[in-house]
Design goal:
Helix content is 20%, strand content 49%. The protein is of the alpha+beta class.
Length: 120
């Protein structure tokens, strides 16, 4: 998914997104449109995922919850945009797909959800 964002390939990214995706008021189609715009505006040069962990996993319930740190850089360089993501996945057929996500500040107020620019 990080490679698809870095490469600006929205359709490739969305092969990993659930048909029932929701993020706040956004459904899958609305997120697709926003993701396309954000990728174009920010010209993302690199995305790095670190400290990935699975917090919950149940094939029987078709549910998984993950937690990971994200660093994203614009192609022009500069400091990365940092955030922590908690993401829920559902099993659709034999593939795990992103169902929803929450974002947090990695430095302060770790338990307070933040908004990602362009996704609200």
């Amino acid at each position: 998914m990080a490679d698809a964002v870095k490469d600006g390939k929205v359709d490739d990214l969305f092969t990993h997104v659930s048909k029932d995706f929701r993020y706040k008021e956004l459904d899958r189609d609305a997120l697709h449109q926003r993701a396309q715009l954000v990728m174009e505006w920010n010209d993302i040069g690199n995305v790095q995922i670190s400290a990935f962990r699975v917090e919950e996993l149940s094939r029987a319930k078709k549910f998984a919850r993950t937690w990971f740190r994200v660093s994203a850089w614009a192609k022009g360089g500069g400091d990365p945009y940092l955030f922590v993501t908690q993401a829920d996945f559902v099993l659709e057929g034999d593939q795990w797909k992103l169902k929803t996500m929450r974002f947090y500040n990695p430095v302060v107020d770790h338990d307070k959800e933040i908004d990602i620019p362009g996704l609200r």
